[in-house]
Amino acid sequence: LMINSFIEVNQISKAEKIWSEMKAEQVEPDVFTYTALIKAFCRLNKLPKAEALLSQMINSDVKPNVVTFTTLMKAYCREELFDKAEALLDHMKGCGVEPNDFTYNIIITALARSQRYTQAEANLQKMRKSNVAPNIWTYNALIDSLCKNSKFQLAQKYWNTMSAEGVQQDTVTYNSMINGLCSQNQCTAAVAMLDKMKENNISPDTFSYTPIICAFCRDGKFETALNLLKDMHSGGIKQTPTTREIFSSAFRKSPVFPLVVPLIGRD
Asked: What pTM was computed for the model?
């Protein structure tokens, strides 16, 4: 309990001292104490200490749980140590601890962000073989990264897969696809995606409209962009200071700018 209290206030050296005293007195920490200290070492990026503690834990016949392994997995992925992350996944299973959706999503998300799509797909297959169903967070991570890196066809493949598996797209999924379409200058398709979003009762937000409006402004189609801005305004969709600035800049040199000013809250 004292160890956890020191960890919570980031006094790791005091926690380590009590740990050493416990071991000297042959008082064996439980899984929660081990996990708390491993988490602290991971947070401080002291991964060799975290690894040593995991080994000590196993050698002391204290079985790590899914949180223990996932904590170290997250640290490996943060540092892009993907070989270690994948080896840990296998080690975890060897210890009789089954990874859950959160564990798989950590590694798949990190691989996707690093544009390691082949590895991400391999871990997605591992997830399925382990009878852990991919969920909205799994697919959103893949689709978002693919759309940001101009791999729209592969993003569309995952979109279709999630539909076939009965995983309902959300605002994040639609926004990623809209961004991907706009980046390829497919404004009409992006508008169709926005309409589909509404038809499926998924609420658009300011980030659903912003890339489409900006894309039409880039193409000089200011009337179309203005109509979308009006639609956004009439729908009560709140803008952020950043999107207001984006719209102001996009429309500033257009003939419709005086009509834009009241819609973005400018005096």
From this structure: 0.88
